[in-house]
Amino acid sequence: MKNMFAKWSTLLLMVVVFAACGGGSDDPEPTPTPSPSPSGTVTVSAPVVSDVTTTSAKFKAQVTASSGVNITNRGFCYSTTNNPTTADKKVTTQLNDMQANVTGLQANTTYYVKGFAESALGTTYSEVTSFKTAEASGSELDSYQAPTYVDDYRSIADWSKRSQWNLANVHDPTVVLAEDGYYYMYQTDASYGNAHTAGGHFHARRSKNLIDWEYLGGTMTSTPAWVKTKLNEIRAKMGLDPISNPSYGYWAPCVRKVKNGLYRMYYCVVVDNYIKSGKANTSANFDNSWTERAFIGLMETADPASNVWEDKGFVICSSSDKGKDGWARSNANNWDGYFYFNAIDPTYVITPEGEHWLIYGSWHSGFAAVQLNANTGKTLKELGDPWADSAAGLEANGYGKRIWSRDSKSRWQGSEAPEIVYHNGYYYLFMAYDGLDVPYNTRIARSATIDGTYTGNETVLTHPYKFANSQGWVGIAHCAVFDDGQGNWYYASQQRFPTTASGNAPNAVMLGGVRSIQWLSTGWPVVMPERYGAVPAVAISADEIAGTWEHIDLGYSYGKMKESATMTFAADGTITDGIWKGGKWTFDAATNTLTANGVELKVQRECDWEASPRKHTIVYAGINGAKSYWGKKK
Question: What pathway does this protein act in (predicted)?
Answer without folding.
Answer: Glycan metabolism; L-arabinan degradation
